[in-house]
Amino acid sequence: MFKRRTLALAAAALLVATSSFAQFADRTIKFTNGVNEDHPVGVGVKKMQEVLAAKTGGKMKINAFWGGAAGGDLPATQALRAGTQEMVCTSSSPLVGIVKELGAFDLPFLFANEKEADAVLDGPAGAYFNKKLEEAGLINLAYWENGFRNLTNSKRPVAKAEDFDGVKVRVMQNNIFLDTFKTLGTNAVPMAFGEVFTALETKTIDGQENPFVTIETSKFNEVQKYLSVTRHAYTPFLVLYSKKLWDQLNPQEQAVLREAAMEGQKVQRAANRSLNEKSLTSLKAKGMQVNEVSAAEQKRMFDKVKPVYDKNVPTIGAEPVKLVMDALKKARGG
Ligand code: TF8
């Protein structure tokens, strides 16, 4: 009697288990990354894999590729739009040719800290960019973090606004960054991320700019001597899914992917933030000479690049810039 009841219960449980996973098809999702796996993006992707395993009974899987080996930010994003690849984690900046409104994030010295970035990304402004991305064939599942960008170079210490003069700096494929770094006096060259290490190594360029964690995990310290804590931009990571392929998923599959990306966001942002200062210490220990930039000097740099705002806001559009500025004002208590 007891045995039969146990069996019946077990059978019922099995039925619930199989039926709750029946809505998920066996899927292997290709997810490419420009950064290496030891970047906190690796923590976020791992979390996504765990959530998918638990919630779909192992039916939906992520196959992750690292270090740009399966394509850089822009080509991967184009593959998503074409429907030949599911996912990419990319900086927003190289995508301004696709969604011009994203240029709002490229305006120099826009965010002062992570709290401000979160307020913008997790509020109505973030939702607005998601809508624009969707119109371009891209579903943004979550905003993850690359962090505040800092200049490195092999030519000279850069501590004040004048020191940028004549340094040959790689910038992302983005007109606002190009304008900013030209305005600062550098010889700015747009280049895909995947070419940067070699270009630095061969001294085709003197410098580049990225957050500490990306500098360290991409080993730029091996080919760069000087690091300046400029914090001149915070360009978010987008966790994108191909809209063409998204539309082939059922609502449960879509929901579980969104949930996984948001669970991933929590651990990815936390890991990135706890690693940021550690990375700076570690970059120093590995031999980089660090120049802190005082608040007064950062203000001088900002004053120098102010014309970049007036010049580029018409291209970005008044609406996205206003949404970002409103969110910032609110975050600053104004
Ligand atoms: C850049 C970006 C990149 C990231 C990474 C490739 O400098 O900051 O580091 O988008 O995913 O191009």
UniProtKB/TrEMBL annotation:
GO terms for biological process: transmembrane transport. It comes from the Bacteria. The keyword Signal applies. GO terms for cellular component: outer membrane-bounded periplasmic space. Pfam families: DctP. Keywords: Signal. Residues 1-22 form the signal peptide. GO terms for molecular function: carbohydrate binding. The keyword Signal applies. This is ABC transporter substrate-binding protein. It comes from Polaromonas eurypsychrophila.
